[in-house]
């Protein structure tokens, strides 16, 4: 039985915009109110997907969520026709309109945490949608994410879908962005590294001062429990408060792992030596091969350059024969220390990382989302793949159809005041309606299910 990793990329939604909604995410804070380019953003995403396919990586796609979410605005007291709801929200509460309109579900690394069947106690694939409780615009995502996951992975003999954790600060969960699975091979048992930034009773010295941590230890532990992951295969590590304050709002901004290689920045953990030791000990029970730690010191690439370039928000993918490729954002070419580091990467990795690709993802990057944010890693056996919805897996024909779909429906530009344009709502619904047909997903969106027109 062939077990493969699939990269589920988020399609950028038609309302992609810059609203400075994410405190602690420097790119989001810096680009607020700038004009966005939804068509370019979605095409950049598709180009990245095509690159990965050329490298032999298997891909699937997640559809965007419906935005603006008129139902979210209605739940906050705006009433009348959809047009009246949007107009009043723009006038009285532009922040709420921006939250209702964010295309943030494109960053599918935050959609959920997934555990492969080889690791879970009941031998099934487990999913827990992230509650994204720390940011209002993202807290709207979990219920629809849950619907997407249940639609794509429908059969209960293979897939277990948990409810999102309680939406409380103490249970803040940001999904796979704070989780790395290392493994000797995809069909073998893996080591799950969960990284959290806060926990009950945390000492003051370990608490970030400038920005709030998003992921809690209690949340990470709950997911491991729900998914039936053995304690011998889990490590819970504390993210460094210093890094959070510098703008590392998710751990995938400072680390990425694949197979037996963990690539990370010096500033990743609060207690690095202890974390590395625990990982090594637990790994030794899973594999005779060593777990390789490729650490980048501050002296070579300062944390500020890491955050500006998103060096670690790269996809590290297997090419076969023990080789890997790093898919890093094109910003890495523009920053001297990072560029120099990447030039030495092949030798520094003992020949393992033999290729570096730097696709342009500027539209997503300006909101703090690099290549790794845009994908969820899902490990599936052949039988599990056969039990999944076929229409979402990417091939040449689907890639072409999605390109045409984007070019037909997406706007070239969007500014904050456009979010209340009733025409934008109509365009988005028309696009999403067609997308469900392209992907064979049936009636997925609220506006497709209700006759009232109130999504
Ligand atoms: O949650 N940005 C997202 C970026 C998510 C990146 N994901 C990972 N690192 N895996 C966030 O901060 C910005 C939206 C705005 O400001 O308009 C935003 O939501």
Notes on the structure:
This protein is of the alpha/beta class. It contains 18 helices and 15 strands. The strands form 5 sheets. It has a 3-stranded mixed beta sheet with strand order 2-1-15. Helix 10 links the parallel strand 10 and strand 11. It is globular. It starts with a strand and ends in a 6-residue tail after the last helix. The site of N~2~-(3-carboxypropanoyl)-L-arginine (SUG) has 23 residues, from loops.
Short description:
The chain is an alpha/beta fold and 455 residues long.
Give the helix level as a range of percent: 25-40%
Strand content: 15-25%
Show unreliable segments: none
Strands, total number: 15
**Backbone shape:** globular
Number of helices: 18
The residue-averaged pLDDT reads: 97
Q: Can you summarize the main beta sheet?
A: 3 strands, mixed
What structural class do you assign from the helix and strand content?
alpha/beta
Alpha carbon gap, first and last residue? 42 Å
Q: Which small molecules are bound?
A: N~2~-(3-carboxypropanoyl)-L-arginine
């Amino acid at each position: 039985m062939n077990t493969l990793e699939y990269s589920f990329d988020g399609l950028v939604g038609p309302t992609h915009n810059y609203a400075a909604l994410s405190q602690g995410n420097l790119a989001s804070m810096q680009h607020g109110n700038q004009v966005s380019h939804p068509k370019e953003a979605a095409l950049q995403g598709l180009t990245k997907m095509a690159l990965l396919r050329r490298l032999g990586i298997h891909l699937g796609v997640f559809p965007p969520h419906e935005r603006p979410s008129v139902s979210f605005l209605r739940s906050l007291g705006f009433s009348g026709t959809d047009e009246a709801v949007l107009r009043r929200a723009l006038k009285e509460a532009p922040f709420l309109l921006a939250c209702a309109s964010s295309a943030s579900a494109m960053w599918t690394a935050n959609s959920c945490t997934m555990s492969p069947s080889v690791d879970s106690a009941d031998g099934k694939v487990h999913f827990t949608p992230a509650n994204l409780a720390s940011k209002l615009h993202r807290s709207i995502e979990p219920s629809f994410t849950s619907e997407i996951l249940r639609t794509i992975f429908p059969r209960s003999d293979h897939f277990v879908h948990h409810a999102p954790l309680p939406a409380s600060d103490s249970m803040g969960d940001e999904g796979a962005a704070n989780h790395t699975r290392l493994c000797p091979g995809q069909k073998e048992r893996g080591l799950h590294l969960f990284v959290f930034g806060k926990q009950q009773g945390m000492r003051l010295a370990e608490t970030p001062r400038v920005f709030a941590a998003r992921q809690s230890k209690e949340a990470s532990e709950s997911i491991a429990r729900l998914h039936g992951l053995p304690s011998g295969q889990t490590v819970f590590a504390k993210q460094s408060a210093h890094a959070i304050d510098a703008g590392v709002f998710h751990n995938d901004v400072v680390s990425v792992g694949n197979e037996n290689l963990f690539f990370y920045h010096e500033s990743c953990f609060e207690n690095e030596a202890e974390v590395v030791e625990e990982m090594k000990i637990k790994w030794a029970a899973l594999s005779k091969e060593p777990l390789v730690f490729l650490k980048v010191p501050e002296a070579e690439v300062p944390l500020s350059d890491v955050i500006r370039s998103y060096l670690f928000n790269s996809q590290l993918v297997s090419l076969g024969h023990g080789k890997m490729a790093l898919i890093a954002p094109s910003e890495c070419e523009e920053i001297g220390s990072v560029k120099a580091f990447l030039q030495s990467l092949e030798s520094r990795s003992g020949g393992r990382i033999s290729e570096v690709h730097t696709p342009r993802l500027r539209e997503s990057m300006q909101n703090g989302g690099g290549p790794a944010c845009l994908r969820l890693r899902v490990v599936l056996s052949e039988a599990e793949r056969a039990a999944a919805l076929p229409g979402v897996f990417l091939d040449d024909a689907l890639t072409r159809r999605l390109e045409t779909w984007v070019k037909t429906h997406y706007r070239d530009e969007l500014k904050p005041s456009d979010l209340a344009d009733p025409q934008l709502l109509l365009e988005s619904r028309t696009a999403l309606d067609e997308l469900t047909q392209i992907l064979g997903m049936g009636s997925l969106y609220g506006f497709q299910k209700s006759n009232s027109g109130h999504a």
